[in-house]
Amino acid sequence: MSLIQKMDKILQNFYRSLLARLDEKVSNYDHRIPNNMRNLKKYIRKGDVLLVEGDSEISRIIKLFSTSHWSHIAFYVADELIKKGSPLRETLLDQYGEGARYMLIEAFASRGVIASPVTKYRDFNIRICRPFAISKSDMQEVTDLVIADLGKHYDQRNIVDIALMLMPKWLNPFRKRNMRACLGNCNDFEVICSGMIARAFQNVGYPIAPVLPASESGNVKSPYGDRLVMRHFTQILPRDFDLSPNFEIIKFNIIESGKFDYRSLPWFDLNIRNLKSSGQETRTKETGEQHEI
């Protein structure tokens, strides 16, 4: 083994040890919106991606360097893993019962690519993103590609390279990388959560966060009225699915049911209508400006 190979192995072990420690849960997670699991199961569809605000130290770091609430992403495969002939059918049915009909594929630094029931995110801040107008056959191909990643390892170097790439230019040794550059170990056996899903969509030509060539970046016609460059899937982050103009945001908790009536909300101890009609005002001491409460 050469010196370079030894150093590379030491670095890989360091990444693995560091990320395993950072994967531990924090004690002060802020779950802001209660999730209705019945509605989630009713309105989520195969091929949707689930954005998650994670509860670990590494989630905090990812949110910091990506300037986004979303630190993790999972792909919803519904009951694909328990269909007749699936090698995982009996195992998942024994382990999750009815929950095996509502499964996600996701990648973690400490566990690699695994299958999980969607109900595991009951107490997390989550968002559903749905690819708009994708064909049925392409959606099935995307699903099959993500399922094929089960059991793969997590690419620790990929997430480190992304963090370095997003640093300020004066700290960023990757600033000369273009949008097609592969980050991480760049092999077929290691992935990260967002890159795994992005690769499957890009394989059928479905865009996540494409960019314009430098010579056309000032053209106001996009998105997507100009020629595009497909950003390499290893550079895709969970936030890119949220920001993508071709993924719909599905408000499963209330709005999807079409039954939302804000006038009949059961407020605990505040009469909203009386407050609105009373026109209470307050005056700031310094400016003398009036403000309605």
Supply the CATH architecture. Answer: Alpha-Beta Complex
Order of helices and strands: HHEHEHEEEHEHEHHEHEE
CATH topology: endopeptidase fold (from Nostoc punctiforme)
**Rg calculated over all Cα atoms:** 23 Å
Number of helices in the DSSP assignment: 9
Q: Provide the residue-averaged pLDDT.
A: 85
Write up what this structure looks like.
This protein is an alpha+beta fold and 293 residues long. It has a single domain (3-262), classed as Alpha-Beta Complex (endopeptidase fold (from Nostoc punctiforme)), CATH 3.90.1720. The chain is built from nine helices and ten strands. Helix 5 (136-147) runs antiparallel to helix 7 (193-203). The chain is globular and about 65 Å long. The model is unreliable at 280-287 (pLDDT under 50).
Topology at a glance:
Layout lengths: L2 H20 L14 H7 L5 E5 L3 H10 L5 E7 L10 H8 L6 E6 L3 E6 L7 E7 L4 H12 L5 E2 L1 H10 L24 E2 L1 H11 L34 H6 L3 E4 L21 H7 L2 E3 L6 E3 L1
Parallel strand pairs: 6-7
Antiparallel strand pairs: 1-2, 1-5, 2-3, 3-4, 5-8, 9-10
